[in-house]
């Protein structure tokens, strides 16, 4: 069972995240006190730490993170903070966090980002070819075949597909796609991503026996031969 | 006393005036001293010269004609009515007997001296001070030639008195001037301080009264007033924005509350609640978006991001945005085209520039009806780099263009949006030292993001 430590003083928020993670099968411990958080974070064998920035007694979560990193702990850390300015985010990433999410947030967004963070840490990703159902994708030659038929994709469409493919079976949100494919760290708010996905879908899934790209309502998209599962839908 | 003085001394006007007065007094004193020493000294030397000449003449006279003739001559000199008030002549025989002259002779003055000296003498029955030269003649008789200095001394005394009283008057004038000067300054500065106090108390409409004189204080007051006007205008702006923010956040919140209350009190809450919750989530997400956008604009306007400026290719930014919006444009039946200049680079923040360009294209797509065209081009000329988004949609009427860019200003409330897009483009353009220009494409809108080229 995967273990997660939540360092967050706001009971309501901590409860919201903890409940969500428990439903996804995590073993969750909540620490509401910044002073003891360093010890808890450094001692336990955590698979993930979720860290708030502004803690009681004027403790900045970043100091906890820095201490943890200076102790050599590589535990993945996702920061959840109301401090949304770009330089705050940059400070967080510099201090060694793996992702920085600003409050308020949807749990589905957090869950998707956690999966992406954990996946990034898994070694052995340098595969050349990937297969999903009857789709074959060559990541080096940048070619896509569906049921033996070659599909022509524009470069940006290929990057979109590749990102979905690398996160196969997991939900990716619109902001994650904007970040990964367009390097946009702001949300244009228009349904740009939806339109791109539907265009990609029309090329990949058209005339195919099994649909691969699925919409997870209110969250984002997932690429899977089986369709979105209950767990993925959050 | 010392306390009162300390209070006065703490006034810069008083201090300055007093120091200035003291300087004037000092200058005058030095001047007067020089004048006094010079005139009195010269006067004395002239008298001494006369005494010497006369002595020499009388000695010669005695050599050629003898004592009796000299005595006669002295009597003649004393009786000729010239300088008779001040001249002193006395001839004593070798036995000490007075042969001629106007001095009552005392022992101590009949000793010959090599120099002229000042002595107390009795002349014509009156005690006075005289400068005397005592000479022993060849036959042993003594010749005294001199000049009564009494008048001279009285004159000196008079001059000294006049100088002293003059100095006193000057000193008094200096102090009086200092007090007056202080009062005048106090009055002018007092007006400014009075205004400052009132503003501090919260009366922001107060201004410093400007006197008719066009002096330094009038100019200072005008500058202060201009500054206050600017602050007032900025605060009005802030008030306007906070009112609008309140409106934009309160309105959705009250809508959410209304919907939730209705759902709660409905006959069958289980049926109406899910829909109300969905509505609430959407509305609150919208509030969050508005908040986020406002904070971003504020962050840009604060200017801190200038510190992390790098060289950014505007073409790369444009291509990225074009490849993001091409699908939407296509779906809406719009033609999205572009022409890119060779290498338009700017010094800036890549994220923000991407945001600005995305906003411009987003706007064009929103306001151009199906079948329209949107053209994006970049060019660099004359130290400026320009990215233009041109559409053939409805455009913005000329009289409305100035208001575009104000937060929450929306041309058409039917088109979804928050009225923050162009406001953030404008803030980003300004952060980069550039501008946002809007023009008529007849029909449609030309939006130009003009940025300075690096090193320009």
Q: Give the averaged pLDDT of chain B, no decimals.
A: 85
Number of structural units classed as domains of chain B? 3
Tell me the overall shape of chain B.
rod-shaped
Strand content of chain A: 15-25%
Structural class of chain A: alpha/beta
Query: How is the CATH topology of the largest domain in chain B named?
Result: Heat Shock Protein 90
Estimated share of beta-strand residues of chain B = 15-25%
CATH class of the largest domain in chain A: Alpha Beta
Question: Strand count, sense and closure of the main sheet of chain B?
Answer: 6 strands, antiparallel
Contiguous helical run count of chain A: 9
The number of distinct β-strands of chain A equals 14
Could you state the CATH homologous superfamily of the largest domain in chain B? Histidine kinase-like ATPase, C-terminal domain
Domains of chain A, number: 2
Kindly report the CATH topology of the largest domain in chain A: Rossmann fold
């Amino acid at each position: 069972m995967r273990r997660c430590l939540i360092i967050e003083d706001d009971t309501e928020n901590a409860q919201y995240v903890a409940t969500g993670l428990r439903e996804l099968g995590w073993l969750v411990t909540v620490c509401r006190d910044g002073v003891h958080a360093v010890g808890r974070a450094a001692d336990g064998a955590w698979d993930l730490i979720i860290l708030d920035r502004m803690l009681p007694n004027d403790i900045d979560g970043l100091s906890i993170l820095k201490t943890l990193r200076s102790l050599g702990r590589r535990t993945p850390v996702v920061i959840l903070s109301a401090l949304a300015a770009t330089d705050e985010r940059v400070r967080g990433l510099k201090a060694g966090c793996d992702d920085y999410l600003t409050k308020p947030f949807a749990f589905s967004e957090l869950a998707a980002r956690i999966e992406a963070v954990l996946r990034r840490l898994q070694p052995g990703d340098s595969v050349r070819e990937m297969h999903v159902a009857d789709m074959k994708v060559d990541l080096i030659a940048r070619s896509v075949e569906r049921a033996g038929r070659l599909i022509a994709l524009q470069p940006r469409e290929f990057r979109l597909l590749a990102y979905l493919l690398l996160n196969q079976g997991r939900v990716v949100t619109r902001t994650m796609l904007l970040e990964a494919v367009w390097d946009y760290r702001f949300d244009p708010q228009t349904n740009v991503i939806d339109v791109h996905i539907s265009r990609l879908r029309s090329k990949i899934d058209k005339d195919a026996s099994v649909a691969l790209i699925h919409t997870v309502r209110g969250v984002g998209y997932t690429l899977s031969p089986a369709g979105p599962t209950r767990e993925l839908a959050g | 006393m010392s306390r009162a003085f300390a209070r006065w001394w703490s006034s810069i006007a008083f201090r300055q005036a007093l120091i200035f007065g003291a300087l004037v007094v000092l200058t005058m004193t030095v001047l007067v001293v020089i004048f006094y020493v010079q005139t009195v000294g010269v006067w004395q030397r002239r008298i001494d010269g006369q005494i010497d000449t006369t002595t020499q003449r009388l000695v010669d006279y005695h050599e050629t004609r003898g004592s009796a003739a000299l005595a006669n001559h002295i009597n003649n000199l004393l009786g000729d009515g010239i300088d008779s008030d001040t001249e002193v002549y006395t001839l004593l025989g070798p036995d000490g007997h007075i042969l001629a002259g106007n001095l009552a002779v005392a022992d101590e003055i009949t000793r010959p001296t090599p120099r002229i000296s000042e002595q107390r003498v009795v002349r014509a029955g009156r005690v006075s001070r005289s400068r005397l030269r005592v000479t022993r003649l060849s036959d042993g008789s003594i010749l005294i030639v001199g000049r009564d200095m009494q008048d001279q001394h009285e004159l000196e005394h008079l001059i000294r008195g006049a100088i002293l009283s003059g100095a006193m008057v000057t000193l008094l004038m200096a102090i009086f001037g200092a007090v007056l000067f202080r009062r005048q300054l106090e009055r002018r500065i007092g007006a400014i301080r009075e205004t400052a106090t009132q503003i501090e108390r919260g009366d922001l409409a107060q201004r410093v009264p400007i006197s008719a004189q066009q002096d330094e204080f009038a100019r200072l007051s005008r500058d202060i007033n201009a500054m206050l006007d600017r602050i007032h205008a900025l605060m009005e702006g802030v008030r306007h924005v906070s009112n609008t923010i309140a409106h934009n956040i309160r309105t959705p919140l009250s809508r959410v509350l209304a919907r939730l209350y209705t759902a709660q009190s409905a006959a069958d809450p289980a049926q109406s609640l899910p829909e109300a919750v969905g509505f609430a989530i959407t509305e609150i997400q919208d509030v969050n978006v508005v908040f986020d956008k406002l904070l971003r604009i504020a962050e840009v306007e604060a200017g801190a991001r200038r510190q992390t400026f790098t060289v950014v290719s505007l073409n790369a930014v444009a291509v990225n945005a074009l490849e993001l919006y091409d699908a939407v444009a296509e779906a809406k039946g719009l033609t999205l085209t572009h022409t890119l200049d060779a290498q338009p680079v700017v010094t800036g923040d890549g994220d923000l520039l991407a945001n600005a360009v995305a906003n411009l294209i987003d706007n064009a797509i929103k306001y151009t009806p199906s079948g329209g065209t949107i053209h994006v081009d970049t060019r660099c000329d004359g130290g400026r780099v320009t990215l233009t988004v041109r559409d053939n949609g409805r455009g913005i009427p000329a009289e409305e263009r100035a208001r575009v860019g104000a937060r929450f200003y929306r041309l058409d409330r039917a088109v979804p949006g928050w009225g923050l897009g162009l406001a953030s483009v404008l803030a980003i353009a300004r952060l980069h030292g550039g501008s946002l220009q809007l023009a008529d494409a007849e029909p449609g809108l030309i939006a130009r993001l003009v940025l300075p080229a690096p090193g320009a």
